[in-house]
Design goal:
This protein is mainly alpha-helical and 224 residues long. The protein is built from eleven helices and two strands; from the N terminus they run H-H-H-H-H-H-H-E-H-H-H-H-E. The protein has a two-stranded parallel ribbon with strand order 1-2. Helix 1 runs antiparallel to helix 4 and helix 8 packs antiparallel against helix 9. The longest helix has 29 residues. The protein is globular, with a radius of gyration of 20 Å. The protein starts with a helix and ends with a strand.
């Protein structure tokens, strides 16, 4: 195990560098700078951001693949099957959730097609059934997937760093969401947990309808 620390340090540095670049490129400050000094590039910004996010993953993922480190523990067959079922459920939840997002806007194709030079996202405040239980469903699904895999030293390090980044990244992202949507998102934050669903904190149908009623541009599904 002690022999793995040099590689683990390199892996941690690669992940931290990736997260810093990813967050910096997503920041309103940088987007406003680009909009002011390089206006013609704005329609390509979101698409370029997504492509760069995928390309830069080659570094940390390559290091993890090259040397995942020693296994930390073994799992019984029923625990492994249970973990795999949870991961499959998270993947299914992610796939189902796609129908409630504007895929073209998320990928950056809509901005490119419409030659949009806006700094703010184009999508309005929208609630899916998943958003009634957790503010960031994709982060939650991602956490379920990474924490249900076979655990090696490198994967555990990755899980911890990814979890920390999701926590910090969600807080940074919500600053932008408040800037975009204002009071309706502040009220939503007070009612629903960020990353992990909690049975005693969820958006009831009445609360959901009342929340959407406060913003004429908002949309969503409030059915059980």
């Amino acid at each position: 195990m002690s022999d793995y620390w040099p590689h683990a340090s390199l892996l941690a540095a690669a992940w931290v560098l990736y997260f810093i670049i990813h967050s910096a490129l997503a920041s309103l400050r940088l987007k406003r700078w680009v909009a002011e000094h390089w206006t013609a590039a704005m329609p390509l910004y979101r698409l370029g951001y997504n492509l760069l996010a995928v390309v830069l993953l080659i570094g940390p993922v390559g290091l993890l693949w090259a040397d995942p480190g020693p296994p930390l523990w073994t799992r019984s067959h029923w625990i492994r099957w249970s973990a795999d079922l949870l991961a499959l459920a998270a993947v299914a939840g992610f796939v189902v959730s796609l129908r409630y997002y504007d895929g073209a806007e998320f990928l950056g194709l809509r901005q490119l097609r419409e030659h949009s030079r806006r700094v703010e996202d184009l999508e309005r405040f929208r609630l899916s059934p998943f958003h009634r239980y957790v503010r960031h469903p994709w982060y939650f699904f991602g956490l379920v997937i990474v924490w249900t895999r076979d655990m090696t030293a490198g994967w555990l390090l990755t899980c911890v760093l990814v979890t920390l980044y999701f926590w910090l990244g969600s807080r940074l992202e919500e600053r932008k969401l408040i800037a975009y949507h204002g009071e309706v998102y502040r009220r939503y934050r007070r009612l629903v947990p960020a990353l992990v669903p909690l049975p005693w904190r969820r958006l009831s149908r009445r609360d959901c309808e009342a929340l959407l009623a406060t913003d004429p541009a908002a949309s969503g599904r409030c059915e059980p």
